[in-house]
Design brief:
By secondary structure, the protein is α+β, with helices and mostly antiparallel strands. It folds into 3 domains: about 180 residues, GAF domain (Beta-Lactamase, 2-Layer Sandwich), CATH 3.30.450.40; about 180 residues, Hypothetical protein af1432 (Orthogonal Bundle), CATH 1.10.3210.10; about 100 residues, no CATH class. It contains 19 helices and 11 strands. Strands 1, 2, 3, 4, 5, 6 and 7 form a 7-stranded antiparallel beta sheet that branches. A two-stranded antiparallel ribbon has the order 8-11. α1 packs antiparallel against α2.
């Protein structure tokens, strides 16, 4: 048995600890698996190595590295993982099932009395000779075998293939256990991240779904925003050419896109769903009121007619005049209601129409009990007198408040370090570079680049989507023209708008099918 001297043992333990620290800091599973094999090969002077993960009673052959082949053949196509049966017939399968360590001097000379045998297909395809092999089980913290680390062809300093020294067995077992725990931690972290992403997406979808007219908006804003960031990474000139988003920053932007409207949970559905200035029910109330006014006029006419006719033939002329006046008043009532219907639709209310509405609201009539009433209520007049759009000042403030609600909600979420800027980015999607936005009236450099991206993505989707209750979809050409006009006015980032239009980031028809 080989003897390890104290100094050599200390050196090996030091290397093992350093590898363990390196493995624990890696969060990308593919990078982690590659690193495990690479470190194990370096540690034991192995020419190559493989790693297998036990999944669903199968072996997932995830990594294969062979240094001599890479030097001989140059760059090769990336290894593609595949599954193998979990069986004692293969060397890796045997170790996975039994949990035994195998240190084989020559895999071509395995006795026929053991269950496992070498598969020579790899050697034949690559003109390679596998000889010595050290195969160890990877055990997690509970002692369960979760995978297999397989090292091939231990090399001397001169390049001669020799058996793996026994002194490496316990050290590689320790490394394999560290690797198993690191793999489990990375998978657990990935599962937690995926769970969080799912909660974010479905929370945003649930809030969007409160109004069928905004369903899908948050997801589309997130996707447009990621497209913009990816395109910025491909720029080589100008201000954007000096900017680069890391994968973590792009993921943070995606989450901010999903969450930018989460504050709408605090906005009344009647405001979110408001299609016209007055609802159908409210408009029907006015119709019935005006119908009642018509009936009142007719009843008054009938009473006056009876009184006039009681005067004999002299009352006929008076009745005829009354009838003309009644018809005029009826036409006037019908025209008033038609006018109300017309201005109830969102649009621009000019001064002439506003003056006419004010006069109508100030008109009075007597109800059935003789009480004097106005043609329109204060609520009806306030809504119908909206000059542009369909929201009253109070309702518009309520809509704007969704950003403040978003900030309040997101700042209470304990985001991880790589997602810590989500509240700031999401809260800035209605801020304008000239300071005219809300809720904080930020200007210029006070608005982060991700927030500027979200702002443009939000505006584009709001204008171009056909599902808004208060408007029809604006054609793409006009939507892009509006973005350019806003950029020229100094409200939104002109470089991002130019990139968005030049690369036609709005044009991909597969938007709804992109990965979330």
């Amino acid at each position: 048995m080989a003897v390890i001297h104290n100094s050599e043992l200390e050196d090996q333990i030091h290397k093992l600890n350093a590898i363990g620290i390196a493995l624990s800091s890696e969060q990308n599973l593919n990078n982690l698996l590659e690193r495990i094999v690479r470190e194990a090969c370096h540690f034991t002077h192995a020419d190559g190595g493989s790693l297998y993960i036990i999944e669903d009673k199968r072996l997932n052959f995830t990594v294969a590295q062979t240094e001599s082949l890479q030097k001989r053949d140059g760059e090769k196509e990336p290894f593609k993982s595949f599954y193998l049966p979990l069986s004692k017939h293969s060397i890796a399968g045997y170790v996975a099932i039994t949990g035994e360590l195998l240190n084989i001097p020559d895999v071509y000379k395995i006795p026929p009395t053991v269950a496992y045998q070498i598969n020579k297909q790899f050697d034949a395809q690559n003109n390679y000779r596998s000889k010595s092999m050290l195969v160890v089980p990877m055990r997690d913290s509970s002692g369960s075998v979760t995978g297999v680390l397989q090292l091939i062809n231990s090399l001397t300093a001169s390049g001669e293939v020799v058996p793996f020294e026994q002194k490496y067995e316990s050290l590689v077992l320790s490394l394999a256990s560290q690797a198993a725990v690191a793999i489990r931690n990375v998978k657990l972290f990935a599962e937690i991240k995926n769970l969080f992403k799912s909660l974010v997406r479905y929370s945003a979808k649930a809030i969007d779904a409160r109004s069928p007219h905004t369903a899908g908006h948050s997801g589309r804003v997130a996707k447009y925003s990621v497209r913009i960031a990816d395109s910025i990474n491909r720029e080589t000139e100008g201000r954007l050419g000096e900017t680069h988003f890391s994968p973590e920053e792009i993921e943070e932007l995606r989450m901010a896109g999903w969450l930018h409207d989460i504050g709408k949970i605090g906005v009344r559905e009647s405001v979110l769903e408001k299609a016209n200035k007055l609802t159908r029910v409210e408009l029907e109330v006015i119709r019935q009121r005006f119908e009642g006014i018509r009936v009142g006029i007719q009843n008054g006419y009938l009473r006056e007619k009876v009184q006039a006719l009681s005067k004999g033939n002299g009352g006929l002329v008076e009745v005829e005049k009354m009838q003309d006046e009644i018809e005029r008043q009826m036409q006037e009532i019908d025209a008033a209601f038609a006018f109300v219907q017309q201005i109830n639709v969102p649009g621009y209310l000019n001064n002439e129409a506003l003056s006419r509405l004010q006069k109508l609201a100030e008109r009075t009539y007597s109800d059935s009990s003789g009480e004097l009433c106005y043609f329109l209520t204060r609520h009806e007049f306030e809504n119908l007198s909206v000059v542009k759009g369909n929201l009253t000042p109070g309702e518009y403030e309520e809509i704007q408040a969704h950003v403040a609600y978003t900030i309040d909600i997101l700042e209470k979420i304990p985001f991880t370090k790589d997602l810590r800027n989500i509240p700031k980015h999401a809260a800035g999607h209605h801020e304008y570079l000239d300071g005219s936005g809300y809720p904080l009236g930020l200007k210029g450099s006070e608005i982060s680049l991700p927030a500027r991206i979200l702002c443009i993505a939000d505006i584009f989707d709001a204008l171009s989507s056909p599902d808004r209750p208060y408007k029809k979809a604006i054609p793409i050409e006009k939507t892009l023209a509006i973005l350019q006009e806003e950029a020229r006015a100094g409200k939104i980032d002109s470089d991002i708008v130019e990139l968005f239009i030049r690369r036609k980031l709005y044009e991909n028809p597969a938007l709804e099918d992109e990965d979330e």
